[in-house]
Amino acid sequence: xxxxxxxVDTGNDDAVAIMMAGLHPDLTLLGCTTVAGNLxxxxxxxxxxxxxxxxxxxxxxxFRGLGAPFAPHPFPTPAxxxxxxxxxxxxxxxxxxxxxxxxxxxxVEWLVETLRAATERITLxxxxxxxxxxxxxxxxxxxxxxxDEIVIMGGSASHGNETSQAEFNIFQDPVAAHVVMNAGFDxxxxxxxxxxxxxRVSAAQCRELEALGTAGAMATAQILDYYIRGNGNSSPDGAxxxxxxxxxxxxxxxxxxxxRLHVAIDTVGFHSYGRTLIDLTGISGQRPNSSVALKADSxxxxxxxxxxxxx
Length: 311
Ligand code: BDR
Ligand code: CA
Prior knowledge:
With 311 residues, the protein is an alpha/beta fold. It contains eleven helices and eleven strands. Helix content is 36%, strand content 19%. The strands form two sheets. The chain has a nine-stranded mixed beta sheet with strand order 3-2-1-4-5-6-11-9-10, with helices on both faces. Strands 7-8 form a two-stranded antiparallel sheet. The protein starts with a strand and ends with a helix.
């Protein structure tokens, strides 16, 4: 049974990732840490508690994380710099509030303590800005040795979804991403937008999920319907459920195709601030530091989603 920690900025696709991780019998979800990203951290925390309560997993503790980037944004962010593709997110998910409160331990403290005390290695799955993870590593660099694999949703080898160059999670905190990429994790898997753009769910597939009738499937259909209607990432084929692809990969690695590549983060550029510089040809001469997912199997993804939510 794989032990995992999800670091989330819930968020619609984060919610689906939490449900998959909380419901699949092969995964032990030790806790969720929250971070600012899609919404301020108070909202991402509230949403995370609601999602877990909805699927009957209020036993999974939620720890509130950092509410601002690890390093301050060096540029003012004029409207023209941040593209109009920025998703419009609802504030609180339309799910009942949880009777369980957030754990009083700050997320970064809990991450450090849990990884220091771990008797078996843990998988980290950050699917928001990398602020909490970078802070934890900075406080306690040795915790990377307690991590079996870190599976990050972020970056792009092609175009971005926040600016023309940068993907949302990395753009929000590129310095944190730089810290994480260079921390020395044994296995670092970067699930880029190029892969997650294939992890789409259509309106018709939402109806299939609804027909399953389980709490998780019904909520996922409702959340994705909203996402399909209102999100800049949607297309006639549906909406990309980026974060859920990371959990699907834990259940079935063949759902993505990975290549060993070197990835650097642009922390200084203006137009390319937050871009992941993915060395596709090896021209930099730098040793690969990541397994980078650039493709995903759409049908396999949906089967994993449906199978997990049916239970
Ligand atoms: C990422 O950005 C967020 O809006 C989503 O939750 C996902 O983690 C996709 O770029
Ligand atoms: Ca997210």
